[in-house]
Amino acid sequence: MNKFTRKNALTWVVAAAIMLAGCSQQGSTPTGATIGHNPNPVQVPKNAIGEAVGYKIIGIDAGAGSMVKTEEVMKLYGLDNWQLVEGSDAAMTAALTRAYEQKQPIIITGWTPHWMFKKLDLKYLQDPKNGFGGAEQIHTIVRKGLKQDHPAAYRFLDAFQWKPADMEAVMVHILDGKKPEEAAAEWVKNNEDKVGKWVEGLAPVQKEKLTIAYVAWDSEIASSHIVKEVLETKLGYEVELSQVQAGPMWAGVAMGDVDGMVAAWLPSTDASYLKKFGDQLEDLGPNLDGTKIGLVVPGYMNIQSIEELK
Questions:
Q1: Recorded GO terms, molecular function (predicted)?
Q2: Which CATH code for domain 4-134+294-309?
Q3: The pLDDT of residue 240 is above 90
C-alpha cells in the first residue's frame, strides 16, 4: 500500500544529495541520464531511477486533489514500493529548484499553469493508462444563496474567465518578488479591457463583506488575489481571503462559511469533493481552460513514461 510520509521536502533533498554522492564514489555506468554536480556528473541507468530518487515522489499538501489522484495512479501502475511525500507547494518547488540547479533526479506532482514550466525545462511523464485523466479546467464554485445576497459579486464571479498565460504572468511577478496584492493590482491595471467585460453593467456596492477561500498553490494564490482586487477596486466589496487546504475549502463553501472559490480542478482532480458536496453548492463553470496534472521531471532525466518507474 502507498503511504504518505510526513517529511520535510528540503530535508529529503539533502538526503538525496548524500545518497548520490555515495553513488558517485562507486563509479558510473555508461548509459542513462546525466545527473549530479558538474563538472563530474553522475550517470544513472534508466532502470535505476527509483533508486536514484529513493523511490519517492515529492508532493504537496495532504488532501489536495492532485495528491489523491497521484495515489490512485501509483496503484494503477503498481508502484507499491514508492512513497508519495507530503509537503506543500512551496516545499515542493524549493526541492525541485535545488535538484534542478544541481542536475539531480527528482519526481514531483506537477500541474499547469505554473511558473515552474516557464522558468525550468520540465516534462510530464507519459501516462499511457490515462490515470490522471488528461486536460482539465478550473471552476468557480459559490455557496448557495450568493446570487440573492450579493448579486453583483455573483455576476462577476460568473463572468470571471482568463487564460493560462494570464495566470502565469501573475505567478511569475510574485515569484520575482512582488507581493500577491501588488502583482494582482498591476495585472488588473494592465488588462482593463478584459476586466471591464467581467464587471460590465454592474453597480458598485458599499463595502459589503465577502470571503473567498483558496489553497496555497501558486496558481490559486494568483487567481484568488485577482478576484479580490476586482471585487474591491471595481465593485466596492471588502474581501477576506481565507487560506485553507482543499478539503476545508470545499466544505467551507458547501456549509456557507465562505462565499466562494475559484480553485476547483475538474472533472478529475477534485472529483471526490464535487461528489461529496455537489448538491450543497453552485458550480458556475470554468474560469480557465487547459489545465493538466501529472508526474513531472526535469528535462535532463532519461525517462519518458510512468510505466518506467516500476
A1: amine transmembrane transporter activity; carnitine transmembrane transporter activity
A2: 3.40.190.100
A3: yes
